[in-house]
Each structure stands twice: as structure tokens, then as C-alpha cells.
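Posting for a labmate who doesn't have an account.
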Amino acid sequence: MCGMPSAETTHVKPEEPEQVRPTREDKVAAAGSEFLGGPIGWRALTGRSWWTPVRVIALVMIGMFALGMVQKFPCYDGAWFYGASSQYTHACYSDIPHLYQGRGFADGLIPYFDRLPGDMEYLEYPVLTGVFMEVAAWLTPGSGTIQHQEQVYWMVNAGMLMICAAVIAACVARTHRRRPWDGLLVALAPAFALTSTINWDLFAVALTAAAMLMWSRGRTLAFGILIGLATAAKLYPALLLGPLFVLCWRAGKWREFAVAAFGAVVAWLAMNLPVMLMAPDGWSKFYTFSQERGVDFGSFWLVISQHMDTPLDTDVVNTLASALMVLACLGVAALALTAPRRPRFAQLAFLVVAAFVLTNKVYSPQYVLWLIPLAALARPKWRDFLVWQACEVVYFLGIWMYLAYTTSGDKHQGLPTDGYQAAVIIHLLGTLYLCAIIVRDIWLPERDVVRRSGDDDPSGGVLDGAEDRFVFGHAAYVAWEKEHEAEPPPPVNWGKDPDGSL
């Protein structure tokens, strides 16, 4: 038939899932798309344009990362070296240049093996992050003044972290097959650009994002290996095994969880065991430092301590914070097993990591990087995401202005203690707000943006579309009601005897 296109000439491949268009379901996304050329067009949807979603998102991420680097230029030009308070008033502080000399990289010391001068003794970072820092030191020329070397060291690290940022954006865009444009939430997140080069967290975040992508594709062993590597770079990725355990329990996917956990343990040991055996004191420094560290910036524990005559004892805070984290994890597990529909993996992952940073004795501004990719997968709604990001930007400015106030002497330039405490409360409430929205989505699946578009758990891999094997409470009642609603009513006995006679 002349007027009908054949299967070979159609522009959309039958096996490719139809993309969800955020500009149709999200008013904020529709309004914001005008800055990027308007809603998505036919050529992008059919794949006939070079500008695929992943490429666009990766380039946007690189552009935003570059803007974040520009924001640090006042410090690059001298505030890191010549003025303690000016790096705070310009809100451009970074650990990276300070630790180049402070942790022995300028002197060629080997992390974990060579003892540092001063009280720190050894590098206080996990092994794989130490490797990242050491590789950047190898790429930094040892000529010129120490200030010049620190500038180059920061630039080298920024280049390596930019690659991590592009990986994160690409992985998030590909995790939900039908929702690639949700990756723009990560690429355009203001807190991401502002905090990317404060520390080395992006390396662990990139490994975690890659792990989430592997799990969504059903590659359980690759997921486990990447989670193990991420945990060797930062502790928080190990938390994702908790919600995965509960979800696999509910779905009866014990083999898949065992493979993932095995891969994680083996990968973590492969990175840590050599240093653990050859330099046990240096290897354990990260864990002893985390235990002995007192209440610090960004946490509600600091706000409480600042209102007390005697600061809280570190051991007491460790015990209370651990207890609160255990209670939060039990609450998340109970939610996962009693919800009317099995929660999505990304939803529980966000809740557990958020519980960790909320109950921790320190909530550094760069910790928001841990949450941003998970938030984009758990609640891809621009309004809620931007409300949370606004709270994080308030805190980002608040902590530097508070440090400026405490380091400016009699000038008192910056934010006093009461103002800083308000900033802390705002950013804690912002995270709690997003947690509450996600809990509501779990308990009322019809409010979930992802499930409203017809998906079950696109980041869930083997969990996507799987039937429940173990539930209790409200979920058990819903399952029983669903099972019996299709059964025909029992036949009516009109007074006949069993043999059919009257």
C-alpha cells in the first residue's frame, strides 16, 4: 500500500521504549525548557539528531561544572593563600589546595605508609580516595612556589572531578530508560556546581551512579563490584545494600542480592586488604578519625551543642547518632515491607542515605552530592527538587559567612551564630521535606511521578515488575484483596441435596 510506511521506514525503532517527556507532565520543566530551546522535538524523540538526551545532559553538566570552577576563581587568585577570611567571604573555599601540602603530597609522602608531621599522623580518607588524591599529585609539577603547585593541584583535581561529574549525569540519564531527561535535574542542580570541587566526594558518587545503572540493567555482579569500589572511596555507598536487601526480601530475589553483596565485599577487600596488611595504622586512620571526631558543621548536634554550657561528649553523640540511624533504618525497612506496592530502589536508597546525613554528627556542604543523583531518580519533580536545592544553597552561603564571621576578628564580617543556626535548620528541613514527599509517594503509589507514567521500578533491575513474595501489615491486606477480587462468587445452593434432588 503506497500511503502506509513499512516497519523498515518508520523512524522509531519498535524495540525502543517511548520516552517520557517532562515538559508535558511538569509545569516547571515546561517553563524552564524555554531557556534550552523549548520542549523536546520530533528529531530528538526519533533519534535522528546528534543531540541525544545523554549527550545534551553531559554537556550541560560540564558547562555547569565549569561555572562552579569560575565561582572558585577569587580563591584561585590568592584567597586560599593570603587571607583566611576572604576565602569565606567569597564562598570559594576548597579542601583540595590546603591538603596538597597539609597531607604530604607536596613532599612526596606516600599516603597511609608515611607518617605526617603534626597531630593528623596519617591521611584520614578511605583508600580509593587516597589513590585519587595521589594520582592528581603525580600529575602536578613539582616546580614553582608552593602556592603555584597548590593552584595546579586544584586544577588537576577539578579536571578529574569534571569527568566524574559527566559520568554521574550520563549514568542517571540512562538508569531510567524512558526518563533520560530527568538527568537534567543533576546537571542543573545549583548545589552540585557549588560544592563539586570542595572535596573529592564526586569520585565515590560517580562509582555509585554507575552501580545504580548496572543494577537497573540486571547486571548484579557489576553492581556489587562498583558498590564495593565506591565504599572503598567513601563509606556511604555501602548503605545502599540495606534497602536492596529489604526489597529483595519482599520480592524473593535472594540469589541476586547474594551475588551483589559478594561482589561488593570482594571489591572492597581487593582495594583495602593490601593497605590493611602492609600499613594497618595508616589504613585505620579514616575509621578512628570518624569515631573520634567531635560534633561539627551542618549537623543538628552542633545547634544543640551551641545552646549548652558544656559541649556534648563525643562518645555520647556517637551512641545517640548510631541509635537514631538504626531507628531510621528500621523505619525504612518497615515502610518497604508494609507499603501497598513495593517501593522503588531509588526511593529507599535516598531515604537511607538522607537518614545517615541527617543523624550524623557532621553534615558538610559537599554531602549534598551524595543525595542529588538519588533524588533525581527517587522524585523527578522539578518543584520539589528546586525547593530542596534552594535550602542547600542557603546553607552553602551560610556556612562560609559564619566562618568569615569567626575568622574576621573584631570586624565581625559575615553571619553570626544565630544566623548560621538558622541556615543549618533550613537545610535540614529541606532534606526532611524531600524525604516526606518520597515517603508519601511510597505509601500512595498513585502520587509517584515515575509510576504515573506507566513504569514500575526502572532503576530496580530484577525487581522491576517482580511479584511480591513476602509482605505484612497493610501490604499483606492489599495483596489478599487483589488476589480475591477476581475470584467468582461461590455457587448458590437452592435447597438441593448433594445428589441434585429436591
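Reply:
Got it, the C-alpha cells are right above this. The chain has one domain: 47-481.
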